[in-house]
Amino acid sequence: MISELRIRGLGVIGEAEVSFGPGLTVVTGETGAGKTMVLTGLGLIMGEKADAGVVRTGAPSAEVDGEWLLGRERVPDVLRQLDEAGAHVEDQAGMAVVLLGRTVAPEGRSKAFAGGRSVPAGTLALITDGLIAVHGQADQALLREARQQRELLDRFGGSPLAECRASYAGSWTRWRALDADLRSLVERRQDIEREAALLRHGIAEIAAVAPEPGEDDGLKSRATVLAHATDLLAEIGTARALLAGDDDASGTSAADAIGQARRAIDRAAGLDPALAELRDRLDVAAAALGEVSSDLGGYAAGIDADPAQLAGVEDRRQLIAGLKRRYGPGLDDVLAWWQSAQRTVEDADGADARIDELTAQEASARADALAKAATLTAARAEAGQRFAVAVTAELRALAMADAEVQVDVRTQEDPRAFTSDGADAVALLLRPHAGSEPRPLAKGASGGELSRIMLAIEVVLAGVHSVPTFVFDEVDAGIGGKVAVEVGRRLSRLARTAQVIVVTHLPQVAAFGDRHLVVAKDSDGVVTRASVTEVRGDARVRELVRMLSGLEDSEAGARHAEELLALAAGERG
């Protein structure tokens, strides 16, 4: 439950601390006293959109902090989300304690906090979704919407219905994906075939040449060698003669010079053995010269000065250059285009087989989705019957003795009209009087009736909903008298299993509170720390008298207020 709410610089509230407790807490006060700002503060903590207009004029920012006491076994998912967000959670007598907060700057920017850790506002929304449910007159308007009615039914259905819905959603997603792939392939088949026909010409042209990676660079080097074969052979011959000599050499070769030097050092080594190491190094040099000379001979043997060979190389270079102009710019680009084109043609050639395969898969997925949609519909229909009976019983306790709620679950005939939520259109119908025809809530319920229907639904859902705190903002609007007493009674019963906070103008409802808070402005029109007070005893009677008649000193009003409090106390036992 939420134990405390601290507000600074929010609307008419300069600074206020609001303490809550278990059971039913009622919040009352004059119109414009700031009760709505308390709910606005809760909304900010719940991740709602920040509005610069909520910042009090002259305040540096609006700040809201809420302290929650969490039962570890009741809200394990919330505690997991807090842990994932890195929030600091304290332990207090076996309860988890966490502080959630939000600040809003005058220009509208906001910051959110969870357990001392900065988090996105969306994270606050996820966390508080499992902690608190707020209902106001806007929710009554939502109650008229078909989607909201289906969501209420699904919540009532609990885990079994949720499992049916999740299973169906997975099948529906797979079916729609396969159907989209199939339709796309069928629509594109002619385009693919036309593209493949054009690609086949290029594929054949490249295949005829069959270039290898890097071949253009190799051919360029080969052409240079063949074009200068005579000069290369002459230079290599000269180099070999200088290194090793030949039959026509008239000078001393490098090999002869090294041999003479080696013999001289060998003789010297006979006198000084230390020179033997230099002699060995000359042996290595002589061997290296021999290898270079041999390699030059091999290179020369590979040079062919035949003009026909050069012409063949140049012809192939021209073929590759033509491919590069059409499919390049580089040879690597040509080869990449070739591979890509071959894959496209293979896909085109296999399009019919792929269409047949996708058709079979789509039919199987469609049948699976339809079967699970039927299961979901049956689960909703069964839950709808129980939901209608339970809500009708609550309405009769709320002074709508002849009213009956019905749940109409209708299945869409066209499977393509199904959504991820199922095949069903759910409508809540109200028969306000015996003998009248059931009509949709959007057409057949007044504002006061919607208030009671919303409350009845929440009482019914309390048994299956894990949210520990409910907040009602003037859901008693448009009702009074005996009906108001019944509303107070139902809220009190709801508070036996959850924390309930109610903002109300009705004394009949306020009398049922386990805790009664009054919000008031000071003489300057500002709600301050001392302006939110808990009233008990005579002070509470005076507040109820004000709500009853506006005459705080009315003796008749006081007797009526005491009678209401006695009635409420008797109900609580």
Question: Can you describe this structure?
Answer:
α7 (229-244) runs antiparallel to α9. The strands form 3 sheets. Strands 1, 2, 4, 5, 6, 7 and 8 form a 7-stranded antiparallel sheet that branches. Helices cover 57% and strands 16% of the residues. With 573 residues, it is α+β, with helices and mostly antiparallel strands. It contains 18 helices and 16 strands.
Describe, in short, the structure shown:
By secondary structure, the protein is of the alpha+beta class. The chain is built from 18 helices and 16 strands. The strands form 3 sheets. Strands 1, 2, 4, 5, 6, 7 and 8 form a 7-stranded antiparallel β-sheet that branches. A 6-stranded mixed β-sheet has the order 9-13-14-3-15-16. A 3-stranded antiparallel β-sheet has the order 10-11-12.
- What class, by secondary structure content? alpha+beta
For the sheet with most strands, the description reads: 7 strands, antiparallel
What helical percentage do the residues reach? 55-70%
Rg over C-alpha atoms, rounded to the nearest angstrom: 45 Å
Short descriptors:
7-stranded antiparallel beta sheet, 18 helices, single chain, 573 residues
Task: Give me the secondary-structure topology.
Blueprint (H helix, E strand, L loop, with lengths): L1 E9 L2 E7 L4 E5 L6 H11 L16 E10 L4 H9 L5 E3 L2 E10 L5 E5 L2 E3 L1 H9 L2 E4 L1 H6 L3 H64 L5 H13 L1 H16 L9 H18 L4 H26 L5 H21 L3 H19 L1 H47 L6 E8 L12 E8 L7 E2 H4 L2 H15 L7 E5 L7 H14 L4 E5 L3 H4 L4 E5 L12 E3 L2 H13 L5 H18 L1
Parallel strand pairs: 3-14, 3-15, 9-13, 13-14
Antiparallel strand pairs: 1-2, 1-4, 4-6, 5-6, 6-7, 7-8, 10-11, 11-12, 15-16
Helix pairs in contact: 2-3, 5-10, 5-11, 5-12, 6-10, 7-9, 8-9, 10-11, 12-14, 14-15, 17-18
